Amino acid sequence: MTDTMTPMRKNDMSTKQWLRFMVASVWLVIGAFQAVEVFAAEVLTVNFDDVAQGQLPTSWTIDATNPGGRLAEWRVEPDSNAPSRPHVLTLTTVHDTSGSVFNLCWTRDIAFQDGEIEVKVRANTGMEDQGGGLIWRVRDAANYYVARYNPLESNFRLYYVKDGERTQIAGARGIAIKAGEWFGIRITHHGARIEGYLNGKKYIEAQDETFKEVGGVGFWTKADAASSFDDLRVSVANYKF
Hints:
The protein is mainly beta. It has 1 helix and 15 strands; from the N terminus they run αβββββββββββββββ. Helix content is 7%, strand content 53%. It has one domain: Exo-inulinase, domain 1 (Jelly Rolls, Sandwich), CATH 2.60.120.560.
């Protein structure tokens, strides 16, 4: 038997038109009961596998909040245990280990305001601090949101950093992920509503309006924490119906 496909007619709906029709229908059904925001998403994945060993991805910048000395060293390295081999982005050397310093590697070229952002993280070393996480809606090295997990403290926390000062928004504790184990952080952010997931489980729900505008994205560690990052996935909500 030979499979055949019916040719697309000129008046057939395109995929995007069909999506708009279906979402509009949902809006009509649900809208009578409550206000609902529906988003279409554009997805970008960065796994660093096409970046040369020892280099940084194009347009990514090494930076720090409250630096008091030399910036930390970040580079792409091969890692046989990477979630998607062969490469990961790693903070390899910390020069300023003071507790007020936040080590950053980020880019303005991935613009994020609303949507979903996630990454795989592994805490490699650190005596004062361990682990790390994501930053988003980044204005500059002193203004952004951050969600991080710390194996030393067994907690997952959401903060904003404004003018270099860190303020906790929400958090969860008693989470047993050891240093050397890969874990996934995922954040959904729409308007002021923020949800935080660790290894697929939701631990954080919060509201915050400190930063409302689109900004960059990147990675974060504190003090002497040296960590590896892989499989950054950014799903940007780029229009509403």
